[in-house]
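Annotated sample (chain length 207).
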Amino acid sequence: MMIIVKPSPALYLAIQKRLNEMGKGDYAKEVMRKAIRETAKETKERIHSATKETYTIKTSSFKKSNIKVTNPTKNQLRAIIEIESGPLSLRKSYQNRKNGKRKGASAMIKVGGSMKELSIVSGGHNYKAFVTEMQSGHEGIFQRVPGEYMKKYPRTRGRKGREKIQEILSMSRAKAAEIVYKEKVASDMQGELSYRLHKHMNAMMGG
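Output written by the structure step:
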């Protein structure tokens, strides 16, 4: 996920014009740079906190350091916010519960939601998810894959075979953050940038 932080053309021209009128036109880029940098920092903070408030994603799976900010320069008046992507292990990254004797493993992705049992029905059989540890030591939530069999235990005539298992992965931190950004942060970003631009412009004019 990538977010570009920069002023709209109209806002840029308005700030430039005002500073030119005050004989401070040479400081326009510095005003822009400071305002964009501060807005990008604030946007990063809001995306991180709002994502943690919306989803049960664990702190170890979504740190502030997972959000990278490339700050503006005088020659590149924009900031770039990037969030590391890739699917996450459901077991390690979101609230979940181990399987029991009768009920499969369950998970809750959104804060305030409910634990839902993870299972699929295929061919009249209910495939319930389960927590297990691989030989590598990695623990995850896994599920049998209907119709696909392990090479060591293929299905043959007179032999049922053993179906493959695959780990259940969940929404990436980038996708979670993207949804939150669009719903809770994006609409305020230009207003925040405008406020900071005027703040630094007024400080420059008063200096």
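Annotation: Residues 88 and 170 are 5 Å apart (CA to CA).
Annotation: The longest helix spans residues 173-206.
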